[in-house]
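Last lecture ended with a question: if I hand you only a sequence, what can you say about the shape of the protein? Today we answer it with a concrete record. The protein is alpha-L-rhamnosidase. Below, first the input exactly as provided, then the predicted structure, then a couple of comments.
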Amino acid sequence: MKITECKTNHYTNPLGYCFENPVFSWKVTEAEGKKMVSARILIAADERMEQRITDTGYQTDISSLAAPVMMKMKPRTRYYWTVCVRTDADEEAVSDVHWFESAKEGENWEGKWIGCLSEGKESHVFYKEIEIAKRVSRARLYITGLGLYEAMWDGNKIGEELLTPYCNNYNSWIQYQTYDVTDRIQQSGTLSVMLGPGWYKGRFGYAGNWEKGYYGDNFKLLSELRIEYEDGSEQIIGTDDSWKVRTSNLVFSGIYDGEWRDDTRKTGEDGSAVCVEAPRGKLTARLSTPVTVKTEFPAESLIHTPAGETVLDLGQNITGIFSLRVNEPEGTVIHIQTGEILQQGNFYRDNLRSARSEYFYISNGTEQTITPHFTFYGYRYVKIEKTLCEDPAEAYAVMEGEKRDVIYTPMPDSVKDNFVGLAVYSSLPRTGSLVTGNPLLNRLILNTEWGQKDNFVDVPTDCPQRDERMGWTGDAQVFSATACYIRDCYSFYYKYIFDMETEQESRGGMVPNVVPAFDVDSTSSVWGDATTIIPWNMYRFYGDTGILETHYSSMKAWVDYMTSVNETAEGKKDGWRRAIHYGDWLALDGDGGTEGVKGGTDDGFIADVYYRLSTQLTAKTARILGKTEDAEKYEALSDNILKEIRAEYFSPNGRSCVNTQTGYLLTLRHGLSKDRERTGIDLKRSLKSNGNRLQTGFVGTPILLEELTKAGMSDLAYHLLLNEDYPGWLYEVKLGATTIWERWNSVLADGSISSTGMNSLNHYSYGAVVEWMYSYMAGIRQAEDSVGFQKVILAPVPDPRVGQVACEYNSASGLWKSAWKFEDECHIRLAFSVPFGCEAVLYLPLAPAEIFTDKKNPIFECVRENVCYLTAGEYEITYKIREPEKDTEEE
Ligand code: BGC
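The predicted structure:
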């Protein structure tokens, strides 16, 4: 028996993260027993676990998903812990020793905020020489800087993280990071910190411009290096006006526009840093999970385009940076641009809108490797060219865009060997894997996984390439369950909903459509409902009520906000319905053509349905938290909203007047009609009248296949999934997509991009179909009364057109597996794995009644009405399927 994946507050050995009390979690594998009967947590001040701080003793009511232990944490202290587990087979095991280390826990900083007297667009480097005269036993760097910082010791980067201190509303809170620098700081050296503009100042969002930053106009740095020596003494080096500052060779950086590096530039004179006013936001220990370089992409091919360009193709649309080795004569300007797609074989980037998304480098005649520091790109193709400028002013005119008649020369073919694309995203453990017998579906799954990586750069973004790259709440909401199947997203969403809370606080509970909000001050149903849906999904996936406790007031505030809008001055209850909403965004049943954004489903109906959903989730949360009065209030409100919905949109017998695919889907999903069967028939008819092709947008698409399957139309669900023509998921796969497109018709069948106004090739929303693949196609879906996947409904929906599926989901409770394969036309083989401590309710698909009496197979150990009840273990079966029943009949 082994105890694995031990985490504190859902992080492995967290250093300097923000939390009040530790919450421990772990998994058990290779046990004889089926269940944990008790567990005991020990916390100590030393790694040998001798200086005990806490011993919970063996407890029977402890959860391996989230076991909180109350303790007062001292600042800057490492604590060690183990968990001992006993099982129902009388086994006992102790985990390895794990640790968590507190941050500054609210203590005062010895360092002061520093900046420089004047600054332009260029990055500045603040530095201080530090003398180390004795042997160092432990060293920590506590640091933050605005906009973005990179700390170095003797010119070498400290840690691997990029884009620190990450992206949030800096007027509300500013994260600081902690680095263990013991190994680095053993001799005298220079601590230097380079600052770039990032999201803090410069152009970002809709209103950002270079003249005025959102959060400030001046770089600010705060750090504290604490060195403990072997003789027991301590040295603290905080930032203050004894630090020096100079300008760097990074003459410009911007999130949208890229970076410029001038190696011919004499870096500025050394000046003194000055103490500056602290920024407005509250200094807070980090919440963001590290963003690092995750995959290196050497160019897959070099393309000489018809237009005479030299273009590299990575073979995959990524978010990230690159490294390029260059060796050019002094004064050479290298110009790099990124794009997502070629057009007529040529480099193309009009769909990035105003984002310049480029890199300029001015060579000083030496060999160098260039890598951007304070920006990122969303790209697959890179165009690289160069020109020689005799005069530096000319090079700047080129970079500023003032000199337009530049004659560039394409780079020689050797550029292919000198360029490496670097994919960058938040570090989240992978939990899901899904492979089918259909290569196109496998590519769709891979594209969704890339969509997640590419849009999980600290904030769940809509897209990584054009002049948005923002935390659109609706996109995040519809994709959140899929994301949690693929990766352990607890820490990522925890930070995001913390951001959401802070934005709501200053807006009377209203959830801005974008979080962090930047200048977006509007809200919409479905988008704002992220504040109830994401925490709820997290609770369901990870089983930690902590997320509901911390976020409950925001859930409530959102529902109360909608209620206040709903109750109009005329005494009516339809204000929310009549507010402005995005509706079934990008659905095909609107009337906007290829540039259209609005779907055909009544926005007010969608708004009411989501108002009720948020109210229900808030009521359920109140019940879980023991807030009975609140629970009753929101339950009653939810009942009233249902009455309003029925009165407005349904006939007394349950016929819906919202006659769109999404309208019927929402009706089924939320039990709105009194006549469910009728809705199913209407949905089927509506699809049929559209040639059995989908028309759904952001609202309908994520639930389309699930509702069809639940209504007995899995055949139709597979038909839509496997459709290779427009509109459908495989249409884009067949056109060579390597991520998920924003629009069903982002690219037309002839390969030309359909529009440039709002058209990204890397939006993950429609990738939400992967949730259905895990939960229905593979059949691993959580029971209603379960959290953390302790109890799962194993109900795979096999289809001969897909042939086979092998799925693994390493849930918060352990590793679930489900696989099926058609051995021939009528024989199917299925295999399942139920993790320790878990139970499954298994529905064997198309199983003939007689097999359930076969007591030799452990699958049938406990059967009631042809449903198998499984405990932890591995199971397998092959049988001859019975004839599938026909889909819902029309009247
Ligand atoms: C974004 C979307 C977002 C939408 C809301 C777009 O510009 O890219 O994904 O949800 O606006 O209207």
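Comments.
1. The two ends are 57 Å apart (CA to CA).
2. The mean pLDDT is 95.
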